[in-house]
Amino acid sequence: MNAEPTLPERHYLGAGSTVRSWLLTTDHKRIAWLYMVTLTLFFLVGGAAATLIRFELATPEGRMLDAETYNRMFSMHGVVMVWFFLIPSIPAVLGNFLLPLMIGAKDLAFPRLNLFSWYLYVGGGLFTMAAMVAGGVDTGWTFYTPYSSMFSNSHVIATVVGVFIVGFSSIITGLNFIVTTHTMRAPGLTWFRLPLFVWALYATSVILVLATPVLAITLVLLAVERLFGIGIFDPALGGDPLLFQHLFWFYSHPAVYIMVLPGMGVVNEVITCFSRKRIFGYAYIAYSTLAIAFFGFLVWGHHMFVSGQSVYAGLTFSLLSYLVAVPSAIKVFNWTATLRRGQITFETPMLYILGFIGLFLIGGLTGLFLAALAVDVHVHDTYFVIAHFHYIMVGGMVAAYLGGIHFWWPKLTGRMYSEPLGRFAAVTLFVGFNLTFFPQFILGYLGMPRRYHVYPPEFQVLNVLSSAGATILAVGYLFPLFYLLWSLKYGPIAGPNPWRAKGLEWRTSSPPPSDNFVETPVVTEEAYAYSLEEADRG
Ligand code: HEM
Ligand SMILES: [Cu+2]
């Protein structure tokens, strides 16, 4: 037997503990921590707003918040969650930490630029937070014109400036990831030996680089119209409000894949490890990742079925939206086939990932309802839509994020968290999530519109269920915060590879040294060379 594992003598976390050493670090692993801490704070802000929304909706009369405040709450919730949490989360935290480790590199291609993009993220966040403190914004996270440009009297400009700046943080991170993947792979690490998480980051980065500038331009135009009254979107000034929607969704639909592709990447890593099997259909998963990124650019018009665009445009966008479902379905099929006859064990990361697959399926299938023109006309702007995107984003993507955090926690910190508490939190989250959002499908189908704080009493039962579920869900989210913090100091020492996982990141110590590997690793086999025989022996 080996002796008790100990923490390595030199590792990146020990490379200086002053605030200065953190704020000026160019180590991708420390920058990942900077992101993790700031993202978590934003998540708590967005979550506080969600709590108020659900409290308000527990009764039909809307007595707790006035209409104006309610609007500002759901806008703040959406703005913070989408722009400051979901978009950066997996790429900026797990991607930053893992990309160099997974490809056997010492750092990203541009370490200083990486630090700079965190500063942009925080800077943008401060603008938006200042707007929130000053009274908030009431436009919703989509800033639809002409309301946002000519009529709203809330803090639109400051909010939009914040989002604009954060957009540049995304673009820079995307460029950094692309260059790193092209130029810094270890000897022997061909494209088709890359972990699928790296493929996912790569495809995501392409979207970030191509789509985000469109958002940036759109926000500038919005600011110009609002500040100077130049007619771009407002019909009264000769502008076209549909133009805003086209530009906005040309970014924001692909942005959905910025959120979900990295989550799918995490699923690949975790599912093979805890089934002790090669991933089924590696090449299909890699290609379907690229296909999703590509098709994602062609479907933005499905957000505009009732906007008055031509029926032919509507039909085309409807058809194209179905096409995106194909590569997504391929992935789910491949995951199922990977599980088949595997030696499955249910550690915490695996529970989150199985949760992801279930919730993503429900979210994806209800997406097909929305992609069908006629059904969408019925459920447009109802709670059905809210339920659909929360299943994908909150159920799916946040579960993948948490699953990934747990899976790589021993690598991040060198310590283990408590497995029973981890499992308890994962199950709580799954139960709370379904109780919160499943009733919303029914509410929406029955006709409860979104963004209303007063509703007819017959919708109350379902709303109370949803609010009760949200309480359970909140416990599921907050719990990991405590036991993970606890494990930072008291967790048992993990050793380099507690899951007996494949992948270069597991070949270095936990936590890794500042420059990742003592010697540059050489790759001689495909990714995921798990074997069931080895598992039997293990
Ligand atoms: C990661 C977590 C979450 C994210 C990313 C997220 C994201 C969003 C977004 C983008 C909207 C749309 C805002 C709009 O345009 O109207 C929204 C609305 C909403 N969210 Fe969340 N959400 C999250 C968690 C939650 C939780 C935990 C709850 C409940 C406790 C919740 C309840 C709601 C409700 C009720 C609305 C509807 C507001 C309306 O009437 O329009 N969300 N959420
Ligand atoms: Cu879309």
Give your account of this protein's structure.
The chain has 538 residues and is mainly alpha-helical. It has helices at residues 19-23, 28-56, 67-86, 89-102, 111-133, 147-151, 156-183, 196-228, 241-273, 282-295, 311-339, 348-371, 373-379, 383-413, 419-446, 460-490, 532-537. The longest helix is centred in the middle third of the chain and has 33 residues, at 196-228.
Explain briefly what this protein structure is:
The protein is mostly helical and 538 residues long. Helix content is 67%, strand content 0%.
List key phrases describing it:
single chain, 538 residues, binds protoporphyrin IX containing FE, 17 helices, globular
Relative helix content: 55-70%
Structural class: mainly alpha
Which ranges are low-confidence, i.e. pLDDT below 50, for 5 or more consecutive residues? Answer: none
Q: What's the mean pLDDT score?
A: 95
By DSSP, the count of extended strands is: 0
Tertiary shape: globular
In N-to-C order, the SSE pattern is HHHHHHHHHHHHHHHHH
Q: What is the alpha-carbon Rg in Å?
A: 23 Å
Biggest sheet details: none
Oligomer: single chain
Map the helices and strands.
Blueprint: H1 19-23, H2 28-56, H3 67-86, H4 89-102, H5 111-133, H6 147-151, H7 156-183, H8 196-228, H9 241-273, H10 282-295, H11 311-339, H12 348-371, H13 373-379, H14 383-413, H15 419-446, H16 460-490, H17 532-537
Bound molecules: protoporphyrin IX containing FE (HEM) and copper (II) ion.
